[in-house]
Amino acid sequence: xxxxxxxxxxxxxxxxxxxxxxxxxxxxxxxxxxxxxxxxxxxxxxxxxxxxxxxxxxxxxxxxxxxxxxxxxxxxxxxxxxxxxxxxxxxxxxxxxxxxxxxxxxxxxxxxxxxxxxxxxxxxxxxxxxxxxxxxxxxxxxxxxxxxxxxxxxxxxxxxxxxxxxxxxxxxxxxxxxxxxxxxxxxxxxxxxxxxxxxxxxxxxxxxxxxxxxxxxxxxxxxxxxxxxxxxxxxxxxxxxxxxxxx
Length: 247
Hints:
Layout: H1 14-22, H2 24-32, H3 41-61, H4 74-86, E1 94-104, E2 109-120, E3 124-131, H5 139-143, H6 146-162, E4 171-178, E5 185-189, H7 192-211, H8 231-236
Parallel strand pairs: 3-4
Antiparallel strand pairs: 1-2, 2-3, 4-5
């Protein structure tokens, strides 16, 4: 078992931080022991469709051919054409698709891959995240989401390295674009006060992970356990986990 926290090249992500916040045991199984639970067949089709859409979006914003074999699925083609209507390529904008931003500071080791970052006129920077699932988002949920905090924080901290010709940003915002509900956009505005709150939250969360006693942690019963892909491992190594979770 390898403690990834001792590897200074290991960068936390939305996924790894979210896993810890959901369940420290789940974090240990995945990132210390390298275990992965069985895939949920009901999610495979949705995941594959999402992957194809993201590939199409990446090729479109990088101005690579998106016709022919890449759009054989009728539903996927319709979603893609709606995306092009919503975000036509403009000559006065700069598009960064599938773009990585990393930070290795004393207290924060973090990275994120952005579906899309758009640099618009007048120093306006827009993060666009594509959601292909059918469950509707809400303004409240996206404003409080870990992804929103991480993506806005990282871009604000590193924008001068991403956009060398921009020294001051007056407006940063994050947009969640749902392919199934393309008429709806959820937007989160950003400012210095929000940035300091996000920085404090991320710092404290990462400090908690770095100092957490994973080996001494004993799981108690929670609703998520019944559908967790790692429940078989908890059952084999159970301490305080109720047998009823696995029935």
